[in-house]
Design brief:
Order of helices and strands: HHH
Oligomer: single chain
Distance between the termini: 51 Å
Strand content: under 5%
Shape: rod-shaped
Length: about 180
């Protein structure tokens, strides 16, 4: 069995181990958050690329539709530079551009949400790391207080020690605080 002198040593080792564990947990949480944030950023990049491609496809479809319209109108000997034929082409372009811009806007919203999620995840990781250091500090302080209570303070502050003798203070004693 261990002697009484070993108790403070074991408490110190236990306290140090718990503090190290708290720090490691905080660092691990930060690393996990950094990884998750990077995954979200990669997803944002993929979403942006897919959105750009969808916008380009929309514009290519419009070009194809305009070509078909012009071919059909030309085959019917209709003047393409004025009247209803011109209005049809302008409307097709305007509606198609609105669709392309809607695709761009929706993509920007999804990309923004993913990037915001990445930023928040990274911040959570930083806070987790800070919390780990704070838990470690609390563990060290509480462990130190416990170790101090294993003998040293018990010898200093006994029921008969001067610290417990307050009989010198009477109701007529004036205490001056500086």
């Amino acid at each position: 069995m261990c002697g009484p002198a070993a108790v403070p040593i074991m408490m110190a080792v236990s306290t140090a181990f718990a503090a190290k564990s708290a720090i490691d947990q905080g660092k691990f949480a930060k690393g996990t958050a950094a990884y998750n944030a990077r995954v979200a950023e990669n997803e944002a990049q993929k979403t942006q690329s897919a959105g750009n491609e969808a916008e380009n496809i929309q514009r290519r479809k419009t070009a194809e539709l305009l070509s078909k319209q012009k071919a059909q109108l030309g085959a019917a000997n209709i003047d393409l530079t004025s009247g209803s034929a011109l209005q049809l082409q302008e409307d097709t372009l305007a509606l198609s551009e609105a669709d392309a811009l809607r695709i761009r806007s929706n993509t920007a919203g999804r990309v923004g949400a993913l990037n915001t999620s990445a930023d928040l995840t990274r911040a959570q990781g930083s806070y987790a790391e800070t919390a780990g250091y704070n838990r470690a500090a609390g563990t060290l302080l509480s462990g130190t207080a416990s170790i101090a209570g294993t003998g040293v303070s018990d010898k200093w502050f006994t029921p008969s020690s001067a610290a417990n003798d307050i009989s010198f203070i009477t109701p007529n004693t004036t205490l001056k605080l500086s």
